[in-house]
Structures are given as structure tokens and as C-alpha cells.
Amino acid sequence: MIQLMKRSQLARLAEQRILFAFLLVVAWVVPGISFADGLPNIIYVMCDDLGYGDIHCLAPETSKIPTPHADRLASEGMVFTDAHSGSSVCTPTRYGLLTGRYSWRTRLQKGVVTGFAPCLIDKDRPTVASFLKARGYHTAIIGKWHLDFQYLDPDSGDAYSQKQHNTPPVGAIIPDGPVHRGFEYYHGFHHARNMKAVIEDDRVIAHDEVVNMLPRLTRKSVDYIDSRVGNSDPFFLYVPLGSPHTPIVPAPSWKGKSGIGDYGDFVMQTDNVLGEIVSALERNGQAENTLVVFTSDNGCSKAAGIGKLAEQGHAVSANLRGSKADLWDGGHRVPFIVRWPGKVAPGSFCDQLICHTDLFATVAGITDSVFPKGDAVDSVSFLPAIQGSQIVSTRNGVIHHSISGHFAYRRGPWKLLLARASGGWSSPKENQAPAGAPQGQLYNMHSDVGEQNNLYDEQPAIVAELLGYLRSDVARGRSTVGSEAANDVNHIEIWKNRVVVNPNKNSLPAKGNKKKRKPKGRQGDDAP
Hints:
- The chain has about 525 residues and is α/β, with parallel strands linked by helices.
- The chain has helices at about 5-30, 70-75, 90-100, 130-135, 215-225, 260-285, 305-310, 360-365, 385, 460-475, and strands spanning about 40-45, 80, 85, 140-145, 185-190, 195-200, 205, 235-240, 290-295, 335-340, 350, 355, 400, 405-410, 415, 440-445, 500, 505-510.
- The longest helix has 22 residues, at about 5-30.
- The two termini are about 30 Å apart.
């Protein structure tokens, strides 16, 4: 297990877990999750650019930001210490979360999308929302979409262009947004640079100051939970917040609360959203039959002022290397806390490897359903883990991806990076890698979670094994067991900027990589 908590905390959590396991046997006799009270509500709160070390209970020695609501959720539920986003930036993670499929299987080979374009999720592809809707759930999204959609002139039906409109006009109609991908209700915005445009269901309804967005999402989330009182159908509420991503705009009532600047204040305000959601559940008597997940889409951004925060004793990535956009774990290992009263042991923790793509298979397990054949090809259920059991994985490992499209492969303790440096924004960047550096990196994440001791040259057999798994998972169109599936593009470049190193320490482009295809997607639109 990754030692990110104090020993006293771990001991206390272990004692609680043993006690809870005993109570389960006494209360239920037969182990496992029971749905005697019906299918549970599911709330998935995903913050934007919240680092692993930003949550106080996950890194108490290096987190200087109070996060009482996340801390409480952890004490009442389970902390996953080795959970990962599908990418170290926004769009790819969101695609994988909703489809159970890595985003690099699509046209988006690096970077993020910018809106004013057809939806990245194909209209015929099942999503977690459409899957649950077909099983009797009411489905809602309140927050950031960032998966592309179009804006149409309500009179002519013509598509507005990004060049013409920095902010989509009020009244613009969206023909391919969340309500066309399985959600029955949507309130939010597309991405940070269009945050002023407030969207409800399939149209832009208002323009508002960006500082008002987080309070708006908080209020709308609570209103939605209140609206479900008395309704016997379960609900799936996806809350992809736009914070603490830029613009870092804590509301006036939160300014100065953290004592370490606007970023700390914004994290506290973000944590409060979770508190308001949990309070609404408790006030309405819905807490006992609701699974709540609190997490992030990737690591903390440099825009938070990582260096200045570090001077104040706050480490945004705890003891992990790197941050948002990077291939190192600080870019994609994320907070992941699950609470489900009576089903998840309070104060427990899990060190099993999971990914946001695993939500699809997990809800299929919760609803006792088989997900569509040929879909959710990169999803493995973590339901056994929250029951205190071992995940039965049908894949060999988890694939990581950086903003520039660099790949990494994680299997057990081993992590192979097909990059010579960060693969992202942290120094050294790929073009800053020292002459003579190995063309890849290999780390034992159990003994070297900070990724300091590169074993790439010392362990060629492990490098070859992991590279083989990666190549197979890419070529087969899936990483799980099953019949081969198709990627959306004909060519996926596994090695980016690969070099050969000669004895004179001159780094040269590898053969066949002199001319590089320009992948679609932009890096700058998820700028730090």
C-alpha cells in the first residue's frame, strides 16, 4: 500500500475495518452487497485539477488546506490510494469515465477539445448515463461537459463558429450535448474558457460572471437532490465541477479562509460542495441508499502556483512526482473516496489499482447487468474492492496518457513510461531531457512512489513485457478480455519523440519518426 497516511491513522482504519467486517457477518450472515432496499442512488462528484495532496486526510503532513467534508467522507467510507484518471488532462478523462473506453482510441490523440464542434462521444455509443437510464435511473449532469458539442442559431439552424463567438450567444441550441448522450437533465457549462455561458438541457440560457458558477452548481446539485424526494426511481447524478481549475475565483465569502491564497480558498469552497450534497442527502433521508464518489479528473495545475504553495508547506501532489499534464503519477493519480452506508466499511482504505474508466463496469455490477457487447472495452468493476474483496481484473494493466499523447503502462508494482521526461508541463519537459537519457522510464511504484530511480536500462525484460501488453491493448481496440474491437482511427502512435542514443551522447529521432502526423486536439486549451 502507498504510505500516504500516518501510521496511527492506518492502524485506526484497519481496526475499524475489522470491526465493520464482523458486524457485516453478524447482520447479514451471507457476505456481499444486498439490494433489499432497491438499487442505490449514485452521485459522482469529480473536481477539476484537484491534486492528491490537496485533500488533508490523504496527506496530513503536507496538506495545509482544510477539507473537512472530504475528510468526513473518508472517515465514513473507503479511500482508494492508487486510483487514476484516464489521462492527466480534462477531456480524455471525461470521455473514459462516461464510455468505459480510453479517449486515445478516438480522434483525440493529445490535448483537449474546445467546443463548437461535434460531440466526441459518438451518438450511438452507450454511456454510463444511457446505460443507467435504460435500467430505470433518472440521470442528471450538473457541471462541466468538455466533450465538444455544437451551438446552433435558433432561427437559421446554422452552426455558430468559435471564431465568431468567444462566448456562445444566449438562445443557442445544442443538438449533440449531454441530453443527447443519456442524461435527462443538464445544467452547467462546456469548459473554462466558455464558463460565462450557462447551459440548461439543450440551450444557452444566460451569461453570468464566472465567480458565480461554483455557487450555481452547488445550488443546482442540492435542488436536484431535493427534487428526487418521494420518487421511487433511483438517480445518477454526475457533478463534474469546474473548480479548482482556472479561473481561480473563490467567492467573496471564501476569500482568505485557507490562509495560503486564492487556490487554497477555492479548494475549500470546492470541498464545501461535497458537504452541501451530503447534507441534502441526509436532510432528505437519502443518505443510506446513496453511493457517493468524490474524486478529481487529474492532478493539480501549475496555475495554482505550486511553487508558492510549497513554500507555505503545501504539496499539491503529496509525495508523488509531477502534476497536471504529466505522465508521472502527480498528473493522474487522484483522490478517490467512496461512501455507501452499510455497504462500504467506514474508515477503510484500498490499495488496489483502479481507473475512472472503471465506472461503467462498476455500475453494471451494481445493477446486476451485462454492459453492451463491444463497448466499455477498458472498464473493470471495482465493486469487489468496495466490498473488501479483490478486484477480478480481465486486463493486464492500466494505461496512462499525458497531454502530449505520451503513453505509460502500469501493471502491479511496475510502471513503464514511453517518455524521457515528464511528458507534460513539469521540468524537465521532453525537449529538456538530458542528452544520453534512456528513451523510456521504468519505476517500481511500490518501493519508489516518487519515481526517482529509473530502472529502464536495468530491467529490459520487464520493459519488453509491459511494452508488449501496451501494444496488444492498443491493437486489439480493448484492454479487457473479449473479442477484438475497433479504434476510431487507423493509426495510434505509441512512441512519441522516440530517440536513439549513440555513444557520443547525441540524441537523434528514431527511424520512421522524422515526419510526424499532427494529432487532433489542442494542448493550449487546457492551459495551466
